[in-house]
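Appendix C reproduces, verbatim, an entry submitted by the partner laboratory led by Prof. M.T., so that reviewers can inspect both the input and the predicted structure.
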Amino acid sequence: ISHLAAFPLEGVVEIRVPSTQIGALVFPPGTLATVTVPRGALFDPLGRQIAEVSATFGILGGARDTAPAQLAMQTPSQDATNVPGDTRRVMAFFTKDIEVVPGGVFRFRQQGGRIRDDLLIPATSASVA
């Protein structure tokens, strides 16, 4: 079973922490963990190697997590310029699992625009990977 799941159209790689011989791998509370994806492990659609990337995070370990999900990253990125006018994909990545609320809407507004000119997209058109 692979511990790496790729979602190429979304530009997302999910790393699944493997289980050990005695059960699930558990990190000690209060420690830092670092995940590194080495150069050459991933390629873009044109065959170019992706540079090495690392992410470090703290382990909660047993305590109840009461903090809500936060926006971690988006594409196009915050304050991006030169985004094509025919863009059809806007993605948001959160720090935790999320659920789409049926009947909810996503709101798009041009900077300086008015509420009545907003584009409302029903949450039912969203996908969660």
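Strands lie at 4-7, 12-15, 19-20, 23-24, 32-37, 53-58, 71-75, 91-94, 105-108, 119-122. Additional entries are available on request from the coordinating office.
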